[in-house]
Amino acid sequence: MEYYAGIDIGSTMTKAVILAEEIVASVIGPTGPEHRRLANKVMEE
User: Fold this and answer.
1) In this structure, what DSSP letter does residue 2 have?
2) In this predicted structure, what is the pLDDT of residue 3?
3) For residues 3 and 43, what is the distance between their CA atoms, to the nearest angstrom?
4) Residue 16: strand, helix, or coil
5) For residue 9, how far is the Cα from the chain centroid?
6) Which residues contact 3 (CB under 8 A, 6 or more apart)?
7) Strand order of the sheet with strand 23-30?
């Protein structure tokens, strides 16, 4: 099975999702100086 990750870092919100045939994990949080931490949180799930 193939997995795909998508990350959208906007000016106020950061959204990340992991997909296989459906959504496996997703996170939405405020954009800030720690936006990489939010993206890594999805990858850890």
Assistant:
1) -
2) 94
3) 11
4) strand
5) 9
6) 18, 19, 20, 24
7) 4-9, 13-19, 23-30
User: Alpha helices of 1-45 — where are they, by DSSP H?
Assistant: 35-44
Distances (CA, A) of 15 to 3, 41, 45: 17, 11, 14
How confident is the model at residue 19, as a pLDDT? 94
Per the structure block, which two tokens stand in for 26? 């997703």
DSSP 20: S
Identify the DSSP state of 21: S
- CA–CA–CA angle 35, 11, 37 (5° rounding): 5
Using DSSP, state whether 32 is helix, strand or coil: coil
Question: pLDDT tens digits, residue range 14-44?
Answer: 888 999 999 998 888 888 787 677 667 766 7
